[in-house]
Amino acid sequence: MENNLDKKSWDPFINLKADKMQISFYLIRKSLLAAVSELKPKLHGSVLDLACGIMPYKEFLKNDLVKEYIGVDLEPTQYHHHVKPDYYWDGKTIPLEDNSVNFILTTEFLEHYLDTQHILKEINRVLKPGGTFFFTVPNIWPIHEAPYDYHRFTPFALDEHFKNAQFSSWEIKPLGGFHYYLALSFAVWNDFRLQQKHKKLVKPFLSVFIKFLIRKDKKTKLFQNGDMYSGLYGFVTK
Length: 238
Description:
Number of domains: 1
Strand order of the largest sheet: 3-2-1-4-5-7-6
Largest sheet: 7 strands, mixed
Low-confidence stretches: 1-10
CATH class: Alpha Beta
CATH superfamily: Vaccinia Virus protein VP39
Number of strands: 7
Order of helices and strands: HHEHEEEHEHEHHE
CATH topology: Rossmann fold
Mean pLDDT: 93
Structural class: alpha/beta
Helix content: 25-40%
Shape: globular
């Protein structure tokens, strides 16, 4: 499929530059890229990018073992003057056959889908036996795409959803730990609440503090009382 995005347009997702982005977007996309990088060597066969937008990770994820990369999205969206998906969908039924793809990925999508069980069952339906569903979801992030911002998931809620959708196994990981959560919180406060004149005053101190927090960050998969995380990602097997 023809892709009209030039290389520069992809930089905010792959070739990240902190001095060219709001710090909150840099931090969240840095953690997303790390998670997607974990998916990359696993991919083979057919890959479905659900709610694909501009398919920002398509070129990054492609390898010799990936035979087909399919984008599915609603019609129309603001992104489609750049990249058109392979298929449009009605938001209810994925327009693919049962047991037809090896991998499905959704990045920052599940929080926007009201009926979590329905979409997970659809994902299960389309995956081949033994296929993998890769996801990311935010925890600390402002309301966005209102009014279609419905959920902030805990790992325990996702456990129940995957179980009820009859997946066979899954692994849930934090995109960032407690210190990353705190760094992202300060970045969101700076980017979304401070006036421009105040941003200039706090920038030198905030930059040093955020770098310190990121260096201190440790990601734990135990998810015990008192834990905090910036977001979640994981691998779910049919």
